[in-house]
Each structure stands twice: as C-alpha cells, then as structure tokens.
Task: inverse folding
C-alpha cells in the first residue's frame, strides 16, 4: 500500500519536473530567441513550482529525508534518538496545528484573486 501511495505522488512530481523544464525552456527560447515572449509561461511555471514544492515535501517526508530540527538532535546519544525524533515530530505537529486556522482564513481571502492568464482580455 505504501509503495502504491508513494508512486501516486512520485509519478506526478516527476511529470511536473519535466513539464517545468519544457515550459521554462520554451519561454526562454520564445523570449530571447524569437523575440516573442509567451506571456503565460512564467505564470504557469510559478503555479507548477508550487505544486512541485508540496509534492516534493510529501515525498521527502515519506522517505524520512525531510528537513528536521537538528540543532539539538545532532548532539544526541544513540539511545536518545527516539526521544529526539519524537520531540521534533511533536514540535512540527504543534506548529501545524497552530497555523491551520490562519492558513485556512488566508486561503479563503486569496480565493477571490485570479491569475492574469485566467482573466478575459476584453
């Protein structure tokens, strides 16, 4: 189950990396090579990068390679590893709980903003 769930996140992330490269390359070629910029390429690349960051964080967390609080944990003894990992995980979870409500409020307020590519040119 874990392998399937991992693939469900890793495959779209890999496709996003490829799409990001193609879109940015096309934007650069169009702007500097053809002198006809693709006005949508920068915005689309920014939106794809946000998705890539979120999927990448999920992949790193699943693999145990996500950023950790290592200031205290780096000096720990072998027996203290579990306690240190537990404290770091609990602190991250507490931070997540603290920012959940303000994040939802902010997302709701920003939901009315549309991208320039989504607006009608008329």
Result:
């Amino acid at each position: 189950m874990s392998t399937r769930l991992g693939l469900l996140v890793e495959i779209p992330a890999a496709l996003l990396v490829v799409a990001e490269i193609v879109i940015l390359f096309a934007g650069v070629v169009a702007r500097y090579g053809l002198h006809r910029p693709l006005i949508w390429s920068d915005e689309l690349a920014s939106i794809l990068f946000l998705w890539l960051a979120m999927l990448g964080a999920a992949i790193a967390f699943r693999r145990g390679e996500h950023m950790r609080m290592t200031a205290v944990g780096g000096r720990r003894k072998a027996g203290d590893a579990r306690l240190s990992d537990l404290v770091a995980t609990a602190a991250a979870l507490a931070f997540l709980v603290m920012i959940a409500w303000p994040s939802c409020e902010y997302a709701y307020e920003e939901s009315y903003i549309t991208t320039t590519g989504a607006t009608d040119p008329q």
About this structure: The chain has four helices and no strands. The chain has a mean pLDDT of 83. The radius of gyration is 20 Å.
